[in-house]
Hints:
Layout: H1 2-35, E1 37-43, E2 57-63, E3 76-80, E4 88-96, E5 100-102, H2 110-115, E6 120-122, E7 127-131, H3 141-144, E8 147-148
Antiparallel strand pairs: 1-2, 3-4, 4-7, 5-6, 7-8
Amino acid sequence: MQSGKRIIELLNRKKREIASVVVGSALTTYFITSRVVTTAIVTGNSMAPTFNNNSKSTRVLVDLITPVTKIKPNDIILCHDPEEYGQYIVKRVTALAGEFVYVDGGEMGEYARKHVYEGKLSVPTGYCWVEGDNKPASHDSREYGPVPL
C-alpha cells in the first residue's frame, strides 16, 4: 500500500511540473508575441518585389520593441490602415516629419493632388510618409496622406 501512495505522489508531482512548464511556456509566448516580436502576413502586391513577388502572401517578423523615434526613411513598417479601422498596412517610410516629399503628376493620389505645392508636400510633426515599393499597385500616403507614428 505504501508503494501505491508513493507512486500516486510521484505522478501528482509530475503533473504539477508539467502543468507549470506548460503555463510558463504559454505566458512566455504571450509576453514575447505581444511585447517583443510577432508575425504578420503581408498580402497584395503593393510591396513587390520586396514581398509577394512570386506568391500571394509573405509572413514577416514584426519588431515591437524599437521605439517609433528610431524609424528612419527606407524602413519598412507595419501601421494602422488610416482608411480601414482594425486593419494594418505594410509600407516603406519615404519621409519623416519636417521633410519634403516630391511628387510628379503621374504619381499623385487624391491627397497629393489636394496638398501639393510646387511639386512637393511637407510631412507634419508626428507623422511619416509611406509608399509601397510597387507604386502603380500601391494605395499609400499619396492617396490618404501621412500616417501617425
